[in-house]
Design brief:
By secondary structure, the protein is α+β, with helices and mostly antiparallel strands. It has helices spanning about 60-70, 110-115, 120-125, 130-135; strands at about 10, 15, 25-30, 40-45, 80, 90-95. Strand 5 (about 80) and strand 6 form a beta hairpin.
Length: about 140
């Protein structure tokens, strides 16, 4: 059970990949640890004025990760990350799920827009459901 306790990692001095853009609405960045492994740091939702709307939102990913592992699912391992220079100093941290030499990460919104070019995440979230995603 101890493997289900989130670890705490200070990523302040890790090399940031500022030239890589990630999508979504949350404050995040990509960083390399000392072994040059890729990690994603995600804080909570950042409002246009720079404030944090849901300051504890990142915990949902950590908790979901640990519950999924407990149930035996093959899950990304989310833990606690800390960066003293980031707008939100604490967030969730996960190792990249892809091998960048052989794979490319494509966000789900790309597929949704391919299915429906007029898809607008702000207005259409309620019409997207699991059964539709399986059809894609």
């Amino acid at each position: 059970m101890e493997e289900l306790i989130p670890s705490f990692t200070n990523v302040t001095i890790w090399q940031k990949r500022n030239f890589v853009n990630t999508g979504g609405t949350r404050a995040k960045f990509i960083s390399l640890n000392d072994n040059e492994e890729i990690f994603y740091f995600k804080g909570s939702k950042e409002a246009p004025d720079g404030s944090i709307r849901y300051p504890l939102e990142f915990w949902s990913e950590i908790i979901s990760s640990k519950i999924g592992q407990l149930l035996g699912f093959n899950m990304l391992d989310y833990n606690i990350g800390y960066d003293s220079n980031h707008i939100q100093k604490i967030g969730c941290l996960s190792k990249s799920m892809i091998d960048e030499k052989q794979e490319r990460l494509t966000e789900g919104i790309t597929y949704l827009k391919g299915y429906s070019p007029n898809y607008d995440p702000a207005n259409d979230r309620k019409v997207i459901h699991f059964s539709l995603l399986i059809e894609l």
